[in-house]
Amino acid sequence: MSHVAVVKMNRIRSLDSLKAACARIGLVFQEGQQTYKWFGKWMNDYDGENAAYRAAKMDPKLYGKCDHAISVKGKKDAYEIGVVKAKDGDGYELVWDDWNGGYGLIAAAGTNCAKLADAYGLEEARAELYEMGAVEIKEEVVEGQVELVAYL
Amino acid sequence: MPEVRVSFKNGKMTLKTSGFSGEACRDATKRLKDRIGVVESDIATGECYEAIETEQNHEQQQEFEGQE
User: Fold this and answer.
1) What backbone phi and psi angles, to 5 degrees, belong to B16?
2) pLDDT in tens, B21-47
């Protein structure tokens, strides 16, 4: 190996990659759905750094509203993820309620939606590698993680 | 054939390259890094430096030969 880089991911900028990421891990992208399922009432009981009102500067009055939504395949009672246009106009933010594991949402999307973020990253990387002229891209599972292997 | 390996864990991408010569190993991953996010660490291993040095030596030799 000659080069190793670790990159912390940006916010969501491609809905196509997000849709593909959802399909990859058993989530369903609900195009144009303008509400997402959550507890339903702001209890003002969470102020962690990733709280939507802090991280995305989102008005708690707007919790539950979104531009698109993501649901868990086959789990009607599970909470959903809201896909909300970023306030600065650059991409989208993901918002969700993890109360009681989101009734199955967190198991599917991962804590802090890490599984979804990783799947989104893979789809974005695949798209970029093709744009860079990759002649072949395959997937391997290495220590439980999907690894894209591209030949340029 | 130059190879790029990309994996993700907890919202972070790890990139590994092999088979590139010289600075090409950085150039090849720059687009990926720019698209995905913010670089936290970026390590060119010995093989990369060796390749860069080899290429630089080669360029210097060409210049020298040109002066003759």
Assistant:
1) -135, 140
2) 777 777 777 888 888 876 666 666 555
Q: What is the pLDDT of residues A40-57, one digit of tens each?
A: 877 666 666 666 666 666
DSSP state of A113: G
CB contact under 8 A, B16 and A112: no
Shortest distance between the Cα of B63 and any Cα of chain A, in A, equals: 27
- B44–A3 CB contact, under 8 Å: yes
Nearest CA to A3 out of B63, B34, B24, B11 is that of B24
Quick check: ipTM above 0.85? no
What is the reported pTM? 0.80
Print burial letters for A119-133: b (CB count within 10 Å at least 16), e (below 16): bbbbbbbbebbeeee
Contacts across the A-B interface (CB distance below 8 Å): 142
The alpha carbons of chain B give a radius of gyration, in whole angstroms, of: 15
Neighbours of A70 (CB within 10 A): 26
Tell me the C-alpha distance between B41 and A20, whole Å. Answer: 28
Strands (E), A73-117: 81-85, 92-96
| CA pair distance A60, B38, nearest whole angstrom | 28
